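Example record used in the benchmark description.
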Amino acid sequence: MPRFTIRDLLWLTALVAVAIAWLMDRNAVRRERAKLAKREAELTSRAKMWEAEAHRAEKRAVAPREVLDGLYFALQMRGIKLSDLIDSKNNPIHPSQRQKPIFIDDATR
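Model output (structure tokens):
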């Protein structure tokens, strides 16, 4: 039967304590990695959402420009210059007589 000294038991206790501390640290690192992976997934999702929102906002910003271009084109087609509509101080010029409104549908007929 083997005999163990107190020194052997102290070495065994130290070895078990180091192994338990290592396992606890390893589990903490795993939990931290899982938490960081979850956070990264959330941030990636938010980034994609904001990217899509920026794309939609970009489209909305382009739409008014296209409307203005369409208005300028319609004025050109009718021979109306911007100087006929606004003065040098960028104030609207009101016609002396009321004109009949021209609708886009009427112009295509």
